[in-house]
């Protein structure tokens, strides 16, 4: 009898142990990061992956999401649409219920369509897409989706901030627009022309070029056209190696023009600029570490110590903060529960108070305009890429001023 009882107790303990292991596994939320980890844009994708993992480790240690822990795994899409779809299928086949992607609005449109179809065909196995950098306005307007949440500000929001700042500079007379030939680059060109016409009708657009994304190795022919046009200002949405190579060519050719950019803060571009970009290159973004009070400084310094790299991708921090609050408040990691909880959710991020607007799932947040400057002991204490230069905050646009209307007509599933 005693032997039988011991056997039963042992079996029960084993069962509970197995159950406990299952629960522990279920409490780990795995998120697939579908971005370039090879090819021309690998350096940027790797930096973003490390940022997600770094913030995730902090969230796990501090219990941001309560009983839930995060694990972020990279899936290399080579910045290509078809590879993005292949990696999405691979992630779903492996049981991932959350995916994130940033680099390439073309890939983002394809992911939204594929996830919409998957979710409609597989109730109870839905997937949520955290868009942390594909910012074509169509993604949160005509192609908005209940299953997509954009934690970056879109092209038009950023261009509005950029043009408003540019409009105050009466030295700007001739503008050249150059960008990558895909959805995002075309959206930047359209927004720049429309907003300049409204804010500064006296400014002449002297060029508007689109080039193949990730294929141009020598930008000197494009720079020669910019010089020949007499442009005093360049507006570009280029990112990754396309921006670094453009700036490097501009420096080598002696182009004496101001650059208004979206992504000069990202990996590679600061080194490419060096001293030649001093006081001439600006970027508009969702954060600058050289902010009043230096909020986020300890994260930047910790990231530098751990990876010998710069933390600039605030979007990962905001996304983890939002997901954590949604999961903690609902006590659920089910994508449909989290998706509903994210709507109109507010948290404090490094750039201030942010809110995920329910109507289109476009994050509303402050925007920053900054200028490439020498480091100093006051407002540019943190450098980038060991250059001795960093970004001086010129303007902070409150979230309510950065907000734009949406044409989204979202279809929502039944709330559980």
Overall form: globular
Average of per-residue pLDDT values: 93
Q: Please report the distance between the alpha carbons of the first and last residues.
A: 49 Å
Side-by-side strand order of the widest sheet: 7-6-8-9-10-14-15
CATH superfamily of the largest domain: Response regulator
Number of structurally distinct domains: 2
Assign a percent range to the helix content: 40-55%
Question: Main β-sheet: number of strands, strand sense, barrel status?
Answer: 7 strands, mixed
Give me the Rg, rounded: 23 Å
Order of helices and strands: HEHEHEHEEHEHEHEHEHEHHHEEEEEH
Low-confidence stretches: 1-26
Number of strands: 15
Under the CATH scheme, which class of the largest domain? Alpha Beta
In terms of quaternary structure, what is this?
A: single chain
Number of helices in the DSSP assignment: 13
Q: What is the beta-strand fraction? A: 15-25%
CATH architecture descriptor text of the largest domain: 3-Layer(aba) Sandwich
**Structure classification:** alpha/beta
What is the name of the CATH topology of the largest domain? Rossmann fold
Commentary on this structure:
By secondary structure, this protein is α/β, with parallel strands linked by helices. It has 2 domains: 11-153 and 297-364, Response regulator (Rossmann fold, 3-Layer(aba) Sandwich), CATH 3.40.50; 156-285, Rossmann fold, CATH 3.40.50.2300. 42% of the residues lie in helices and 20% in strands. It contains 13 helices and 15 strands. Strands 7-6-8-9-10-14-15 form a 7-stranded mixed beta sheet, with helices on both faces. A 5-stranded parallel beta sheet has the order 2-1-3-4-5, with helices on both faces. A 3-stranded antiparallel beta sheet has the order 11-12-13. Helix 2 links the parallel strand 1 and strand 2. Helix 3 (81-93) runs parallel beside helix 4. The N and C termini lie far apart (49 Å). The relative contact order is 0.12. Residues 1-26 have low confidence and may be disordered.
